[in-house]
Amino acid sequence: MGLTRIPAESAELLAFDGVSFVVDAEREILHEVNLSVAPAAVTVLAGPSGAGKSTLLRLGNRLDIPSAGSVRFRGEDSAAIDPRELRRRVGMVFQKPVPFAGSVRANLKVGAPLAGDEELAGTLERVGLEASMLDRVADDLSGGESQRMCIARTLLTQPEVILMDEPTSALDHENRLGIEHLAKELAQEGIGILWVSHDLSQVRRIADHAVVLIDGRNASAAETAAFLDQGMSEDKS
What we know:
Blueprint: E1 14-23, E2 27-37, E3 41-46, H1 53-60, E4 68-73, E5 76-77, H2 83-89, E6 90-93, H3 104-111, H4 117-126, H5 143-155, E7 161-165, H6 173-188, E8 192-197, H7 200-206, E9 209-214, E10 217-218, H8 221-236
Parallel strand pairs: 3-8, 3-9, 6-7, 7-8
Antiparallel strand pairs: 1-2, 1-4, 4-5, 9-10
GO molecular function, one term: ATP hydrolysis activity
InterPro entries: AAA+_ATPase, ABC_transporter-like_ATP-bd, ABC_transporter-like_CS, P-loop_NTPase, PstB-like
Keywords: ATP-binding, Nucleotide-binding, Transport
């Protein structure tokens, strides 16, 4: 599969415009990063560990606030959007599943308190889980089941973008492929997916578009090509 960078003029749901992030008043984690998330596509944010990928994702729904630049959702500065509303429309799936205490049903109702069992069961089935799991204790789920439940919980807020921070890193190979397939299906339904990964084989499996970060900045065209070509070499070895 060919990987392309998203042109600035492409249709976008979420855009990072010249975003920088500084901590401790001196340590710059991100420097003037530009990135766009298109609808109905999986955009992978790739790069070596420590490049600032997870930090950029947190800026996407205001878990953190940029030190400079702006994050726009459907053209509007996210700073002008109520954070709770933004986080419903720009959902987040973390590296490790975060189940809450109680049943699967109780977990899903965090995303949609008024939803009935029919809607909850349909959402479970949408992510590849059986409706009968509604009464299961969330803490008893396997890693793959727990991650799917967390994705279902996010889907119940009806997001237009889902930010996925290395969501398969704690899973075995079979479950990793299952979550990748689910992300592609969600993109086909029109959701924009921004997926963080440093696994180059995974990048090549799932990315419709790839953006590479190195040392907290957008990689140059040559650096991007070299990084992705490294992934091709690893696949062949």
